[in-house]
Amino acid sequence: MPLHKPSSCLLTHTMAVVNTRSANRQHLATSGESVTLSQPVTVAIVDDDPMVCQAMQLILTDYSNGDIRVVFTSTSGSDAVERASKELPDVILMDIAMPGMDGIEAARQLRALPRAPHVLMLTSLNPSHTVERSVEAGAEGFVSKTDAPQEIIRRVLDVCQGAPQFNVASQRQLIADLGTQRPIARRDEARRLLDSLPERERETVILAAEGYTNAQIAARMFISERTAKAHLSSAADKLCMGRVQLARLVERADLDDSM
């Protein structure tokens, strides 16, 4: 089944929360201590679903006890960048998946502004394969559209104090992405080292790693066995590796994958 943004459910939940705020309202706390702001934090909300913008605006406006003021909402990444350059919000809640300019590219452009806002990525789904890209674009955390109002407001206020705001789902995904990238980084480093060798030395190292003897390498490369040994010795000296280490380097480079 296709995945849909739960905007109607979010709005229903938000209205229920707002309708009970008179009985439940309390000043938000950071690390258990009350926060007193000299002026409200200004926020912009960007989501291609207007109902999500409306729901988030209700949460931030009606449940922050005056600590947050929404300066604009937008359904377009490009429009948000243009408006942010003029209205200068402190924080932008940015949806990821939007037509045209997506939230990650919009975040990159926002963070390049002379007065760059803090950017929190706004998501309703598991942020698979987006956490690292968002961080590289300058985002300082994630906020789930289904988080409790107090949690959303806390993240908005805390990010203004320089505290990264990563929920559990985004933390897990970041760890998974790092785990996936480590073998790729090792592969790329191995390829870089092999490519640093002269072409004939590189060819000799690869053949040796495939199990060819010096004599067989010499025959395949139409060189003398002495020259083959000299190529291997020179490569080993340049990379500070023995023959076994060279073989493992070729294995890590996974050269079949680069063909």
From TrEMBL:
Organism: Bifidobacterium hapali
Family annotation (SMART domains): HTH_LUXR, REC
Domain HTH luxR-type: 190-254
Listed GO MF terms: DNA binding
Keyword Phosphoprotein: yes
A Pfam family it matches: Response_reg
CDD domains noted in UniProt: LuxR_C_like, REC_NarL-like
Phosphoprotein among keywords: yes
Highest taxon listed in the record's lineage: Bacteria
The Response regulatory domain, residue ranges: 42-160
Keyword vocabulary terms for this entry: DNA-binding, Phosphoprotein
Protein name: Transcriptional regulator
Residue numbers of 4-aspartylphosphate PTMs: 95
Listed Gene3D superfamilies: 3.40.50.2300, Winged helix-like DNA-binding domain superfamily/Winged helix DNA-binding domain (1.10.10.10)
GO biological process: phosphorelay signal transduction system; regulation of DNA-templated transcription
